[in-house]
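Check my protein:
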Amino acid sequence: MSWAELEREAPALARLARERLQRSGIALLGTLRADGAPRIDPVEPHFADRELVIGAMRDSAKARALRHDPRFVLHSTIGGPNTGESDIKLSGHVKPSNVAAGWWTDRPGDADVYALAIKEAVVVEWNLPASRMRVHRWTAERGLTVSERAYP
C-alpha cells in the first residue's frame, strides 16, 4: 500500500507517523543481505508526490540489499531512554521510484530511489507519568486497531 493509501485507510496513524519521521529527519532501515543476514542503515525518509521515499547510493550495500530483496523495516530514531518520543515502525517492500525529493535530487545518477509499499504500520505512543503505552497498528488484513496497556 502506498503512503497515500495509508493516509486514506488510517489517517490518524499516518499523521502521527509522518510528524515523527519529519521531526527527526532520520530513520533506521532494516534490510536483508544476499546471504540472508540482516543489516541496518540510517536513511532520510521524504514525503513527496503522496509517497514516502528513500534514496540509497547506487553502489552501496544498502542499495544492493534492496535490489536483491525488496523487503524492509523502517524504525524511527529516538533521542534516548524514557524520552516519551513515539516509536514508528513500518514494514513492507520497496518499489523503484522517480520521485526527486531528497539528497539525490541534484544527483539522480548516483542513487536508487524507492517508494515504500507498506504492509504494516505501527505507532507506539508513551504516557510516561501514567506508565501507559498506546499502540496504533494497521495491516491490510485487519485494518486499524488501537490498544492501550501498562508498561513495563
User: Anything to note?
Assistant: The chain has a mean pLDDT of 95. The helical segments are 3-9, 11-24, 61-68. The radius of gyration is 16 Å.
